[in-house]
Design goal:
Length: about 90
């Protein structure tokens, strides 16, 4: 697997995007839950595609958390993980 190549998917219902590693031995196709946005692309290019739906991704993830786990500090931590991949998280 080439560590610099990635696949970008979009959730059909939520419209959120995420990236996975690319494997040239795999076949990537749309399925009932996800739409294939791009494959065999550099991380930086995949990040641009994922950033297009970043706010939607954050909102969707936070909305799926149980109420007892929601507080400003946790929300900020999760937002930082999604935006920065955890870089700078304390």
């Amino acid at each position: 697997m080439d560590n610099d190549k990635n696949v970008v998917w979009e959730n059909r219902i939520e419209g959120t995007r995420f990236m996975t590693g690319y494997d040239p031995n795999e076949t990537y196709e749309d399925n009932e839950n996800h739409i294939l946005i791009a494959e065999n692309i550099r991380y930086e290019d995949g990040l641009v595609l994922c950033k297009q739906t970043e706010e939607k991704t954050i909102t969707s993830f936070l909305d799926d958390l149980p109420k007892e786990l929601r507080d400003p500090r946790t929300d900020a931590f999760i937002t930082n993980l999604i935006k920065d991949g955890g870089r700078g998280a304390e």
